[in-house]
Design goal:
By secondary structure, the protein is an alpha/beta fold. It is about 50% helix and about 15% strand. Helix 3 runs antiparallel to helix 4.
Length: about 220
């Protein structure tokens, strides 16, 4: 299957992408991984991306599209892929459409993870990270530490990252609504969108997604 995964920040796209890719036996292609791989390998596209990032500028669509195209042409993606974080806007979606058409391929589904905005803010703004080890992550509501502000694992101080503040989260949501959400309408016109609720346990959301992908016509009505 060839799938695009979309949803607001805090919808759990990365977690679901990993589970779905494993269940479907297709590679999970995320924008973050593409950038890290190209920059660390010193590819031409990676050098271009780094020059923009170092200057604090957005990486142009053509660079991101080039990275995605290279990755989708790898042997492990021959029988499908799951795209996470790409396309990020309508122009990237149109470029992906053209790219696939030129190869005689098409998308099977666009999986839209739906989460109420207040829940997105609650999920992200409640996150706390250990200063000693950033892999130790807690949540004030869903996985609170035994002692407030103290890491259960090592006793380190827990803090809220600047980009997890409520104001920053709401700004990120504004960017999502303005730039990324329009791709849902773009793909709805092609009959590809499968919308599911991303509320509940991770395993429940994964099952919901797998069931919807088996019968996209029904999943679009959820």
């Amino acid at each position: 299957m060839r799938i695009v995964l979309v949803g607001p920040p805090g919808a759990g796209k990365g977690t679901q992408a990993a589970y779905l890719a494993e269940n479907l036996s297709i590679p999970h292609i995320s924008t973050g991984d593409l950038f890290r791989a190209n920059i660390s390998q010193g590819t031409e596209l990676g050098r271009k991306a780094k020059s923009y990032m170092d200057a604090g500028d957005l990486v142009p669509d053509e660079v991101t599209i080039g990275m995605a195209k290279d990755r989708m042409e790898q042997p492990d993606a021959e029988n499908g892929f799951l795209l996470d974080g790409f396309p990020r806007n309508v122009s990237q979606a149109e470029a992906l459409d053209a790219m696939l058409k030129s190869e005689g391929m098409q998308l099977d589904a666009v999986l839209d993870l739906e989460v109420p905005e207040d829940e997105v803010v609650r999920r992200i703004a409640g996150r706390r990270i250990c200063r000693n080890d950033s892999s130790h992550v807690f949540h004030v509501t869903y996985s609170a530490p035994k002692k407030e502000g103290v890491c259960d694992a090592c006793g380190g101080e827990l803090y809220q990252r600047a980009d997890d503040s409520e104001d920053t989260v709401r700004n990120r949501l504004d960017v999502y609504h303005t730039q990324t959400e329009p791709i849902i309408d773009h793909y709805k016109a092609q009959g590809l969108v499968v919308t599911i609720s991303a509320l509940g346990k991770v395993t429940e959301v994964t099952k919901r997604a797998m069931d919807a992908l088996k019968k996209p016509d029904e999943g679009d009505e959820d």
